[in-house]
């Protein structure tokens, strides 16, 4: 399995934090992870090497899969192993990596990329 068309959202993340620190965004605007996002981070996420930029807690990186080819599995959080299994079925689909803080609810999209089977 491999990934292609990787897009980093680091720039947007940094811009959001700058806006927050400049007082042009409220913490409630950026710390809005809902129950589903936090539960997915607990059950499917892995610890990030980075600390939460808002409160310093451990961040969890969660992978979400998207694409019509996935059927009812589209839009769900998945482990790397499950993603590899979908790719083994011959499917090609988008994977979003989202960081979530379960303490202050900070969340941000980190990358989007396409998982595919490398021949
Ligand atoms: Zn936090």
From TrEMBL:
Protein name (record): DUF5318 domain-containing protein
Natural source organism: Corynebacterium stationis
Upper taxonomic lineage: Bacteria, Bacillati, Actinomycetota, Actinomycetes, Mycobacteriales
